[in-house]
């Protein structure tokens, strides 16, 4: 099955002699450079994780707009934005602007969010769950508002004495980007949230971890999650085709430098553990081997086979040139042999 292949960048920086990314400026500018390099190499997407109160990428829309202005073909997106922290109307304006700058290439991944660096960090952003609700409920409520606003329907009563003339009827946040509503993805940890995302008409982003619901290998549980999602999408009768992305750490070893960095990862396996008090998760393995061995291993990954989009998690602190080398190795030494290209 042919696939779109892109990268997912967490955008870490640290003031360490071992890091090529020492500052926030380094992380942002190198993210733009890597997106440009990925487009030149023939990759299909540049995606960025969002974390708050951390030395990682946080505010995605200035970065996405800059990449949109410097590229012409690849999809640009997030994987994912934590909706507990978001003002959905302001977000709709920012996302609309970034999408228009990029010519309609934005693929916006959102979710309830994962454990963050501070306790209830969304409180510092001015958000509080409604009485009887929790932070997960709040994230879904923010999402419902965002999805409705992105339809482009007017809802705000115009001022009878505005500073500038208004068009007729109720008003909406501007700029509005037609089509963006059909390019929203939900990062689902469980089968239930994958089903909910399908019912809402959001595409599925499945990460390198998911809720452990059966004790089976990670890729098997993820493949079953994809099936649940597609069945629910079909039942909902949405007009657009559903999309599914999975993320993987794939490190082809073709040089001595590759072997020094990732040779020890060859024996990696799935891991099980708790990421929250009430959430036991299964974490997928890292794939690190010579290309011919990778082809054999990846051919058995049922979730990759089921997905239409593969996002490669990149070790961004190793620098743009090295990460471009990893992408090129996957695109030329691995993907063709698996029928992804």
Automatic annotation (TrEMBL):
Source taxon at top rank: Bacteria
One GO cellular component term: cytosol
PANTHER family cross-referenced by the UniProt entry: BLL6902 PROTEIN (PTHR30137:SF15), LUCIFERASE-LIKE MONOOXYGENASE (PTHR30137)
Species the sequence originates in: Nocardioides seonyuensis
Protein name: LLM class flavin-dependent oxidoreductase
Lineage: Bacteria, Bacillati, Actinomycetota, Actinomycetes, Propionibacteriales
Domain Luciferase-like: 10-257
Pfam families listed in its UniProt record: Bac_luciferase
GO molecular function, one term: oxidoreductase activity, acting on paired donors, with incorporation or reduction of molecular oxygen
């Amino acid at each position: 099955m042919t696939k779109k292949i892109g990268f997912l960048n967490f955008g870490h920086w640290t003031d360490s002699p071992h890091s090529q990314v020492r500052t926030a400026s380094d992380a942002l500018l190198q993210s733009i450079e890597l997106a440009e390099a990925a487009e030149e190499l023939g990759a299909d997407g540049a995606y960025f994780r969002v974390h708050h109160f951390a030395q990682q990428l946080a505010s995605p829309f200035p970065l996405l707009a800059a990449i949109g202005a410097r590229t012409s073909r690849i999809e640009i997106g997030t994987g994912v934005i934590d909706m507990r922290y978001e003002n959905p109307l302001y977000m709709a304006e920012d996302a609309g602007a970034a999408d228009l700058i990029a010519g309609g290439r934005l693929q916006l991944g959102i979710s309830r969010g994962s454990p963050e660096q501070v306790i209830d960090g969304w409180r510092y952003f001015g958000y509080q769950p409604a009485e009887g609700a929790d932070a997960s409920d709040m994230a879904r409520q923010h999402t419902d508002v965002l999805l409705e606003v992105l339809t482009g329907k007017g809802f705000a009563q115009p001022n009878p004495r505005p500073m500038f003339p208004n068009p007729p009827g109720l008003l909406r946040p501007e700029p509005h980007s037609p089509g963006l509503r059909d390019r929203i993805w939900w990062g689902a940890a469980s089968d239930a949230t994958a089903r909910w995302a399908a019912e809402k008409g959001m595409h599925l982003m499945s990460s390198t971890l998911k809720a452990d619901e059966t004790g089976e290998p990670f890729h098997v549980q993820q493949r079953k999650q994809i099936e649940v999602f597609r069945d629910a999408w079909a039942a909902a009768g949405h007009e657009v085709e559903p999309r599914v992305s999975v993320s993987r750490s794939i490190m082809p070893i073709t040089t001595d430098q590759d072997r020094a960095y990732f040779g020890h990862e060859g024996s990696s396996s799935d891991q099980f553990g708790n990421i929250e008090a009430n959430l036991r998760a299964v974490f997928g393995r890292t794939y690190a081997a010579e290309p011919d061995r990778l082809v054999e291993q990846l051919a058995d990954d049922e979730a990759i086979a089921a997905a239409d989009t593969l996002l490669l998690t990149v070790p961004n602190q190793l620098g743009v040139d090295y990460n471009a080398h990893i992408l090129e190795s996957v695109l030329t030494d691995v993907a063709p042999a698996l029928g992804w290209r």
